[in-house]
Amino acid sequence: MYNNSKVAKAIRLAMMFGAGAAAAISAPAFAADEGAEEVEKIEVTGSRIKQVDLENSSPVTVITAADISLSGSPTVADVLNNLSANAFGSWTGVSGYGAGAAASSSINLRGLGSDATLVLLDGRRMPGTSSSSGSSADTSLIPMSIVERIEILRDGASAVYGSAAVAGVINIITKKDFDGVHAKYEFSSPKIDGGESQSFTLTTGFTSDKGNIVFTYEHSESDAVYDRDLWPVYDADVYSGYSSYSPVTNYFSDAVGDDDWKSNSALCADAPDVVDTTDGANNGRCKYNYGAVTKFYPDNEKNSIFTQFSYEMTDDINFVGRAMASINETDSRYAATPVSTAPIYMQSDNPMFPTGDTGTKVRLYTRAAPIGARDTKTEVVTSDVVFGFEGAADIGLGLDWEVNYQNSLSITNSFGQNLVNDVAFQAQVDSGNYDIFNNAGKSFDAWNADMKDMYQEANHTGTYQGRYASQQIDGLVSTTFIDEGDFILAGVVGVEYEKIDFSQKSDPESANGFVSGGSGGDDVDATRDRTAAYVEIQMALPMNFDISLAGRYEKYEQEGDVGRGISKSTFDKVVPKIGLTWRPMEDLLLRSSWGQSFRAPNMGEMFQSDALSFPTVRDTAWCDANPGQDESGYCSNAGEQVATWFGGNENLTEETGDSVTIGGVWDVLDNLSVEVTYYAINYDNKIDSVSNSEILRIEQENGGLGQYPSNINRGSSGVGKIEDMKTTYINKSSLSTDGLDFALRYTHETSFGDFAATLNASYVMSFEEKAEADSKPFDSAGLQDFPDLKSDLTIGYSYEDFTATWTTFYVAAQDSGNEEWEVDYLADIPTYVKHNLQVAYTAPTRTRLTLGVNNLTDEEAPSQYLGFRDYRDVSWSLYDLTGRTVYFRIEQSF
To answer: Cβ distance 88 to 111 under 8 Å?
Structure first.
């Protein structure tokens, strides 16, 4: 058997106590036990060199399977979202987003975006999702039962792992040496209506002298949570999330001097899911309460399998592999379709023209509620297969090598019901067969039946498929060149080649912009070739200094169909990294690192065709120029939903940047360690989407109303209300952020039980963005949705077969940002503290029972607005929305 080095023991000890960087990489250099035949070589996240005695210059946090179990987090995605280094939260799938995004989750280290954090599974890239154009992995895919630990590298690592590792790396390490059978069932129920979930996992494994194999199956399902159970959608005195696109049609006339909304007051009084703001005489709007219909969290069912094996072919060669497959099905519900992709008009010669109107035409703001809500079924099928050979050769001081092949595939299929073909609907309006404004005075039920027939004539089922396929071949060679006591020199060289095909396609009608209610139009047909070569050197020097040097060349060649032909681009760069560690005394480790980063635009960012969405905007330019007009509607604080076209930008360039970390780990006592790390990241040409609010701000800066016609369509006059907007991805001038990470680990053993405490905190000192080179930097740190401090504290107690854990999550208060954004409707966000409690008992039968409560004090997520509420007006990436949740878990090992 192999003897463990002190580094290996330190890592295992760190895992036992749920330690992070403070213990995971702070063991002093230590020679192998005298007389040992071999020593174990360990690959620590942050370096590809399999090493024994070398320090790591990058900060790494380790979360063990025991930590995950004690945290109460039901999925890997939830565990990662709670990280303090995930300072601004990260995406969790919710209903209302297309391209499969409702069925996926991601991680957003340092707030730089999910495409700047690389997610690995056992040191290899996880398959990308089609909803992200393959640029980020779905962290909810991994069955919890296979996780041995999660290592979080809180440092840029493009030189080691590639271009996506700008903010850091998440490396999920799976269980390998497992014998027996383990079954687990878990059930949870939140305080709010809906949201109940349950999961079942079965893991079996076998280990022999020649190798091992592990197999895991997991089934999970969760019930939907409706928006109406989260927001006060029925309280019109405080809630403002209502739409002018209504089942009781609102309309504008072009009659001279008539600038007011009109609707049928009698119908509005009887219609469901509406708010009547008319005067009772058909003046005003009948607004649609879409939040009363939509699902926030969709119904979800997931089945996944995972297996991996290792077989010793000879004394020096192992055949290794893993396979993973999952089917993730979600049932989302969006509000009934607003007929809005193209303006809908009724001419004055139409027999159903509204009685008494003197104009030549009216514009209709209508919604297909009579045929039902938009129910969308999404199925995401993911597979990932890796196999290869690992070996060692008795050359020099020993040589390790590996060659691998990886095949990943992610296919997303979505089917959206009750969409509306605008061309067909306009034809029905023009036919004169339907009394849209109820001039005949029918009862609501009779009129609604007629409208149902009308919408059925234009009913459309939208289809979408996204396909991301990757094939990769890679290999590396690692060795120790010199090992002479105080001086050790080790290194690794490797190469990678990856071929990616990515496409997302909607049905033809949606793709051509004829359909309202879907996300059609964002089609992509692209390929990418990635070639990389890297080298890494580590040196242990006298006086306990270690130096690491790394360099990587990466080249991206990609092409895509942009409608008028094929666009081709090539991006390549060499990125270096250097790290230094020094141990001035046995209990103190000081370290620093500097490295450059590089990220090529993904295929969706470059080649996506235009797609339509309806974000809420507040048109301050028009409202300031027209004081006193439409103050309860278009110019209210709640704003108005505006048709927005969003597409790719083939002229994007690559992102570049650099990062620095400086810090240290101090083992104050045998049972107490403290880590402090300063980080700074500078990001140039950062690729980001331009939000509607940014476009409106630019219009104001350019001179005010009508001064940004390329992106804001204000109708024929050029200074009217917004008819639609156009936005895309751009290379922002720069983004820079810096801050401090702090970690503390403490354990204490007594005759009546063992105590442990873990504290992690991340303080964001600045988060500055510049949209243009000559613009002033905008610092978001401490403003809404950008908390400058996020932390977690876990206190655990164990005695014999009993354990108890208390975990507290803290999100700092945030300023409103009213002054910075030059508005007055945003609220200051108060401090948010959530407590989780868990107790567990392991019986002599190897049965473990766990009972827990998440959000024990039932803390509510704070609203973003001052004096009123709006649709989804909280950051669900940062806060718990479901309230106090009780869960029960039973596990049985055989």
So the answer is: yes
Task: Please state, as a whole number, how many other Cβ atoms lie within 10 Å of the Cβ of residue 695.
Answer: 19
User: Please, which residues have CB within 8 angstroms of residue 416's CB and are 6 or more apart in sequence?
Assistant: 374, 375, 376, 461, 462, 463, 464, 517, 518
- Answer yes or no: is pLDDT of 510 > 70: yes
Three-state secondary structure of 286-342: EEECHHHCCEEECEEEEEEEEEEEEEECCCCEEEEEEEEEEEEEEEEEECCCECCCC
For residue 210, the 8-state DSSP code is T
Contacts of 651 (CB under 8 A, 6+ apart): none
Nearest residue to 191 (alpha-carbon basis) of 229, 239, 222: 229
Distances (CA, A) of 426 to 357, 363, 638: 20, 11, 30
Q: Tell me: the pLDDT tens digits for 265-291?
A: 999 999 999 999 999 999 999 999 999
Residues belonging to the chain: 894
Mean pLDDT of 791-808: 94
The answer to whether the beta carbons of residues 198 and 890 sit under 8 Å apart is no
pLDDT digits (tens, 9 = 90+) for 550-589: 999 999 999 988 777 788 899 999 999 999 999 999 899 9
pLDDT at 37 over 70: no
Task: Give this prediction's pTM.
Answer: 0.85
Q: Are strands 117-121 and 124-125 parallel, antiparallel or unpaired?
A: antiparallel
Q: Which residues contact 220 (CB under 8 A, 6 or more apart)?
A: 197, 198, 199, 200, 300, 301, 302
Which residues 6+ apart lie within 8 Å of 600 measured at CB?
163, 556, 558, 571, 654, 655
Provide the pLDDT confidence category of residue 98 given band limits of 50, 70 and 90.
low
Q: Pick from 132, 99, 167: which is nearest to 689 by CA?
A: 132
Task: Give whole-number Cα distances, 17 to 59, 232, 755, in Å.
Answer: 17, 44, 10
Contacts of 328 (CB under 8 A, 6+ apart): 103, 104, 138, 140, 141, 300, 301, 302, 379, 380, 381, 382
Query: Which residues are CB-contacts of 577 (< 8 A; sequence separation ≥ 6)?
Result: 156, 157, 158, 159, 160, 548, 549, 550, 551, 593, 594, 595, 596
Contact 152, 169 (CB under 8 A): yes
**Tokens 């590396």 -> residue:** 476
Q: What's the whole-number mean pLDDT along residues 68-96?
A: 82
Amino acid at 632: S
pLDDT of residue 316: 93
8-state DSSP, 716: T
Q: Are 3 and 31 in contact (CB under 8 A)?
A: no
d(CA 577, CA 594): 6
Q: What is the DSSP letter of 111?
A: G
Structure-block tokens of residue 194: 């809906």
Cα distances (Å, whole numbers) of residue 545 to 42, 480, 729: 20, 17, 45
- Is residue 354 within 8 Å of residue 251, measured between CB atoms? yes
Closest by CA to 546, choosing from 577, 578, 576, is 578
- What's the pLDDT band for 24 if we cut at 50, 70, 90? very low
For residue 4, count other CB atoms closer than 10 A to its CB: 18
Give the ranges where 679-813 is alpha helix by DSSP (H): 692-701
Q: What is the mean pLDDT of residues 382-393?
A: 94
- CA-nearest of 3, 2, 20 to 11 is 20
Give the pLDDT confidence score for residue 53 in this predicted structure. 45
Query: Tens of pLDDT along 623-671?
Result: 888 887 776 667 876 677 787 878 888 888 898 889 999 999 999 998 9
- Can you tell me the distance from the alpha carbon of 267 to that of 264, in angstroms, rounded to the nearest whole number? 6
Per the CB < 8 A criterion, the answer to whether 275 and 632 are in contact is no
pLDDT of 491 strictly over 80: yes
CA dihedral 505, 507, 508, 509 (to 10 degrees): -130
Q: Which two tokens stand for residue 174?
A: 């799976």
